[in-house]
Design brief:
Its cofactor is Fe(2+). The chain has 4 helices and no strands. It is an all-alpha fold and about 100 residues long. It has a domain of about 40 residues.
């Protein structure tokens, strides 16, 4: 996962960001968010019913390979190159998307 590889190089920048975020007062709390969340038909399901619904969803999901093993290795090399360049500081902050690429 690219996020894991980038963690060390962005850790110090993230620490500064977290300090700024933690110093800001929080305007809403979790309980208020829960009260305002729309109800779902699944809210009243018990554990067994939720598990059954999950199995239905999972049975309908089909995964198909998009790339060959060689293509995946090429993509991995490109990801590793981007990570190395970011560790060297060759990208501006927030240039590299930290979303998983796999």
């Amino acid at each position: 996962d690219l996020r894991v590889k980038l963690h060390n190089s962005t850790h110090s920048r993230n620490t500064e960001y977290e300090k700024k975020q933690n110093s800001k007062p929080k305007s809403s709390n979790v309980n208020a968010q829960k009260r305002n969340a729309p109800r779902s038909k699944y809210d009243d399901y018990n554990t067994e019913e939720r598990e059954e619904e999950l199995q239905k969803v999972m049975s309908g999901i089909k995964q198909l390979p998009l790339f060959t093993k060689e293509q995946c290795q090429g993509i991995e090399k490109k990801i590793d190159k981007v990570v190395k360049l970011s560790e060297l500081g060759l990208y501006k902050e927030h240039t590299v998307d930290r979303a998983p690429l796999r």
